[in-house]
Amino acid sequence: MIGTERLEVETRGHTHVLDINDRVAHAIRTIGLRNGIVCISVVGSTASITTTESEPGLLTHDLKAFFDRVAPDDARYLHEETWHDDNGHSHVRASALGPSVSLPLIDGRLALGTWQQIVLIDFDTRPRTREIIVQVVGE
Amino acid sequence: MIGTERLEVETRGHTHVLDINDRVAHAIRTIGLRNGIVCISVVGSTASITTTESEPGLLTHDLKAFFDRVAPDDARYLHEETWHDDNGHSHVRASALGPSVSLPLIDGRLALGTWQQIVLIDFDTRPRTREIIVQVVGE
Amino acid sequence: MIGTERLEVETRGHTHVLDINDRVAHAIRTIGLRNGIVCISVVGSTASITTTESEPGLLTHDLKAFFDRVAPDDARYLHEETWHDDNGHSHVRASALGPSVSLPLIDGRLALGTWQQIVLIDFDTRPRTREIIVQVVGE
């Protein structure tokens, strides 16, 4: 059995990290499957899905500081020179982190720890409306 | 068909990289499904699953040196200031690498190369007992 | 239902980024399933799969510049000292990015954006023939 739910999420961009855990859990309940694999993906090449502990230090500072260190917005990006935009670092960060995360679904719940939540990270350089897809294959 | 196996793994923390390939392969044989997708995940927000060549240089030095470079333990982490702990870098490393890896299952075997093994990396700052979930959807 | 297709891709190595999106889409059409989860993986421990916008700046410069920054080829790698080779950075880059990406399959199409394509990145230090596996679980 397959189930699909789509979520729309408003972001501020600029490596905005948003806890979408409750919305993903609600989508899974709506689908109604209890066991299998869940793939949570974001559409587009300047955003990513991962997990973290949802607390303000990590969400508002620590993850952004990491990406600022490894893929600075003021490094040279040919993407920007070609397209005359400013989001080369957004693309690189999103490719490095990846567009999706897959997790086991067991008895209707994602196999996450108590202090582990699903987050969307929007690396683009402007506010965006993001489409998240929650896809379940299971029973 | 769905199959689930849980593994407990003892780690030393501090970016300890452990080859769990044989235990994952055993779990897949126990589940008994032969073809599909396998999702291998670790519960918690300070550890990750990936693949590498299981040889001492990579496992004991090279991967840790990479994470020490990109997310140093002595950088500033608001997570540590808020919670008075010391594992901000552990969270950032785990979020950057991700909590799971998914791979094709073909004729009872994961689609891995000869020199490619499943590894758990525990980024926390103390020894931990980790729960790994091997979830198979297939036939 | 399960479907498997194998692709062979010739690379130049040295963090060569190849757009394999059309070949993956063709594999999915060959399999014929319309909804589910697709896992796209590369066999071996010195290559990875991710998504990016397929345009020359990102493919030929920006992604490689990122990996050159975070895992330089002239850093110290015990893997190289042990095995007398030169691809320690290739292994570290591949482990950091991961061997596969999973995405929702909806009405026969991967849930990708207009400017988002599946890419293979070969981090090894010589040309390689890579095996990509496209695995679909669905209906």
SSE diagram, text form:
The structure is a homotrimer of 139-residue chains.
Chain A lengths: L1 E10 L4 E4 L1 H11 L4 E7 L4 E6 L3 H15 L7 H6 L4 H10 L2 E7 L2 E2 L6 E6 L5 E11 L1
Antiparallel strand pairs in A: 1-8, 2-7, 3-5, 3-8, 4-7, 5-6
The CATH C-level class name of chain A: Mainly Beta
Largest interface: A-B, 37 and 32 residues
Q: Helical residue percent of chain A?
A: 25-40%
Residues in β-strands, percent of chain A? 35-45%
Class based on secondary structure composition and strand pairing of chain A: alpha+beta
Question: How would a textbook summarize the main sheet of chain A?
Answer: 5 strands, antiparallel
Tally of DSSP helical segments of chain A: 4
Could you say what the CATH topology of chain A is called?
Answer: Jelly Rolls
Characterise this structure.
- 3 copies of one chain form a homotrimer.
- With 139 residues, the first copy, chain A, is α+β, with helices and mostly antiparallel strands.
- Chain A has a single domain, classed as Jelly Rolls (Sandwich), CATH 2.60.120.460.
- Chain A is 30% helix and 38% strand.
- Chain A contains 4 helices and 8 strands; from the N terminus they run ββαββαααββββ.
- The first copy, chain A, has helices at residues 21-31, 56-70, 78-83, 88-97, and strands at 2-11, 16-19, 36-42, 47-52, 100-106, 109-110, 117-122, 128-138.
- The first copy, chain A, has a 5-stranded antiparallel beta sheet with strand order 1-8-3-5-6, covered by helices on one side.
- In chain A, strand 5 (100-106) and strand 6 (109-110) form a beta hairpin.
- Chain A is elongated, with a radius of gyration of 16 Å.
